[in-house]
Amino acid sequence: MSFQRKIFLTLALTIIGISIIFIFLTHFTVKSTIKAGLEETRGREMTDIHKKLTTYYLENNHSWNNLQNLDILQDITQKDPEILVMDSDNHVIVQKGESPVKLIERLGIKRELKISNKKVGQFIYYDPEMASFTKIMIGIPISVIFILIISGSILIIISLFIAYRLSKWLTSPLRDLLPVITRLGKGELGVKVPVKTKDEYGKIANAFNHMSQELKQAEVARKNLTADVAHELRTPLTIISGKLDFLQQQGKMIRPETLLSLQDELIRLNQLVEDLRILSLAEAGKLKLNKTLTDMLEFAYQIISTLEHAAEEKSISMRVDVQTKDTIISVDLSRMKQVFLNLLTNAIRYTPNQGIIYIRLFKEKDYLKIIVDDTGIGIEPEHLPHLFERFYRTDDARTRYSGGTGLGLVIAKQYVLSHGGKIEVKSVLHQGTSFIIQLPYHHKTN
Predict the structure, then answer these.
(1) How far is Cα 82 from Cα 96, in angstroms, rounded to an integer?
(2) pLDDT one-digit tens code per residue, 223-237
(3) In 296-408, beta strands by DSSP E
(4) 3-state DSSP: the chain helix, strand, coil percent, rounded to 5?
(5) Which residues share a beta bridge with 319?
(6) Which residue, 108, 117, 118, 132, is CA-closest to 49?
(7) Which domains does the chain have, with CATH numbers?
(8) Strand 356-364 versus strand 367-374 pairing type
(9) Stretch among 72-81, 193-202, 301-310, 382-391 having the lowest mean pLDDT
């Protein structure tokens, strides 16, 4: 069953149900009002008769014997009154009047006779004037019901038409969306549905379009990754294969130093495979972190000490700028060391002689902010959004920040994210680059 039909049937059943309930409630109200009016019209007479009959029953030892000798209608002032008295089994005991029993039962006023909440009989009072009034009152509910049925039917027809149009209007955005979903399901990534409104349907359409575009970009990234991995593996494998063929063709004893270049290529292959393994674990959230409380100020000086020789070769000054006393956080020391070694090595490589590299520490709310600043050549703005992509190969950005396997910055980002932190990059061409890392003071250990 289609969604439109479900909405229509729901609205239709609701409208019909409400209409039926309204008709019955109106009928019940009118009928109760008329009955109360009849009771009020002959209330005194009914009370007198009820009192006489119950008194007789009690004084006659709880029996209706010889009730016909009682002048029940003696005090009734109405013209030609009649009465029908029945016992608890609804058998007629006394009838005073000439009218048919069925007429009295249909047009008279009925009242039960109870003693100590036990029914001992009932009576029906009747007179011509009240009968005429009763006929009028009976006709009123019938007329009301007839009018309600006619007007209710018209209302239901109009309401059903409105419900049909409303259900069609409500489902029209979905009818536009379904074919596009089908196309997406068949692999046509990047398809978009037209956004015609700004309501919830418009938000759904925008969300779908965003998802479709993200899937397209993910598919492009997947294909690029496959191509990049194949390229990275092909280069060392080609070198190894070529050198082995050359050595084999020479037919001579292979000297140990000849194998050093092959070993270098194998090391490169192993590093690439290991980087890809680490990266996949980090992206899947399965990377295990061995966290310990670490003073990041002391850590910064240790990193600078490790790279001091490389910096001195270019007369680069490495400095620490600390603006907070809260420098102790919980981190995986080996992972974080890899992050900062990657950033600082790149900074040294692309900072001109006599340049300066800063490691700055700030406290920002619940985060320790660590900034690696350099006075290097900077990065062109169009490359900045892609620096953390795998194997990004734009000339300047790739050459500068690729690392050994082209995965250094990608892994660094995943390490920071695994710690519950953030990393971003800002750069001004020919002035320098800043990598900004925020690490939480309190974060749940993986």
Answers:
(1) 5
(2) 666 666 676 677 777
(3) 317-322, 328-332, 356-364, 367-374
(4) 60, 15, 25
(5) 358
(6) 108
(7) 3-133 (3.30.450), 200-283 (1.10.287), 291-440 (3.30.565.10)
(8) antiparallel
(9) 193-202
